[in-house]
Fold Ubiquinone biosynthesis protein.
Amino acid sequence: MFKNTISNLTRLKEVGEVLLKYGFEDVVTTTPLRRLVGASRRVSWQRAERTVFDTTRWERARLVIEELGPTFIKLAQALSNRADLLPEALIDEFEKLQSNVPPFDVAVARQIVADELGRPLEDVFSAFDDVPIGSASIGQVHRARLRTGEDVVVKIQRPGVQDKVRGDLALLHELVRLTGGFLRNHGLANPQDVVDAFERSISKELDYTAEARAMEQFRKLYADYTNFYIPRPYRELSTAKVLVIEYVDGCKITDKAQLEAWGLSPAAVAETGMDIYLTQIFEFGVFHADPHPGNVLVQPDGRLVLIDFGMVGKLTKQQKYAFAGVFIGMARQDARGMAASFRRLALTAEIPDMHAFESDLSLLIEDFALLDVKEMSMGDLADRLQTVIYDYKLQVPGAIFLILRALVILEGIGKVLHPSFNTFEFVRPYGARIMREQYSPENILNEAEYTGTQLLALLQTLPADVRQIVRKISKGELRVKVELSGYNTLLRKADQLVSRTILGLLCVAGLVFSGFTLVGHYAPTMRYYHGVAAITWWSLGTTAFFLLILLLLGTSRERKG
């Protein structure tokens, strides 16, 4: 544990120095990180032949991430899908990040496979290619052939990557603790939640059995499809660190020349791909979240193949209906309906001014309603929707941003293959189908059954809950906790009012008492000054003192105001 603490401190110092190197001195000097960086390490702002400030702040943020390594790059790549958290300019920079990691030694890869399978490599594979066909920050992929004759690909996790990621995650938690106030002041309301969500995501990615389960789920969903195929994972030969998958040949979906050489229509291929993807979203609610051209293959018979299921998104039935409602509201030019769908979609939607929100959506609808179908772009629409989400701080499910990103990627693929390809033409019938499904007798019956079950559960527990409340009231044990926000100013004003009222009453009382002393009868020993009894002078003096304090308090309040 002591070793880990020292390691984290060293790494924190390194992070601080990298931040300084790229001109983020404010992040260091306004947080506890400043204690970890000595004055001698405050490096110059000059970088190569230009100063750091010749680049934008967002470009420098990307440079910082690149220098801090693969875990931080993966976090930034994940954040590039969260337009509700980051401004568009920073997302554009994070989308440029690439995990260019060289492959590790094939001897080490072979040893990892043997250790994970618990037997020599030769007992499982008749051939194993030494040159990897792909390499990334988490692992690399080799082609191989099983003893039973099947061609496969073997995905092997990098040695020590789990310890490295765990160390970086601990560092991220510590960084958030040290810089949380700074991040919140600059618009990132819940930095700890972001790191927690990333930790859950990358933990799944480090467990290859999760990817194998996702592939099996997709194989079941699409078992009856003849135009779409998911490679088979060999669960019996796979572990958390090694994944063996059926090898499937084919060309990239964007290889138009090869498609035409096989006698396939590129336009038809693009339409099939979009239909399959929209089926994943709107029918099954589970979708492949990274459909870039390298992950979508086409076979000579026109069958599409999806590979790499490390990133899979999911929507609940209600989220599916709400997401479809956003597009339907836009198609109907119904800003109020679109706003209502957004509110149903959001996890928390505290919109202070619904009229302004509906007005912004109305402007968005007007801008796109005036466009010809050929001029409409999914990329432009995704940007506008994400801007609205960011501006109004709507916390929507992360899967929504994965869908928008995927639709933009698929539109790009479609336009390579199909000159008149338009994403909206494909989405529209799916939206209408979802609405019919939402209001179908079967779904209404299911919703009524669910509501009835919830109501029955409430009625069953209600008597016991009421008895418990009554029992606590009778014993005087019931406590009510009330939290008010913004009451400090009110309390200060009330305190000021009470203080001035008391002083005013003391002044009045002093004057009345002084009046009574003027007509009083005193013993011969009472002293008189200018014909007035000493007690009267003392009373007037005390009253004058209280009056002076009251005047001073009034003057100080006016100055502060």
User: Anything to note?
Assistant: The first helix runs from residue 2 to 21. Residues 487-556 form one domain. Residues 1-6, 41-48 have pLDDT under 50 and may be disordered. The chain has three domains: 1-98+164-203, 252-439, 487-556.
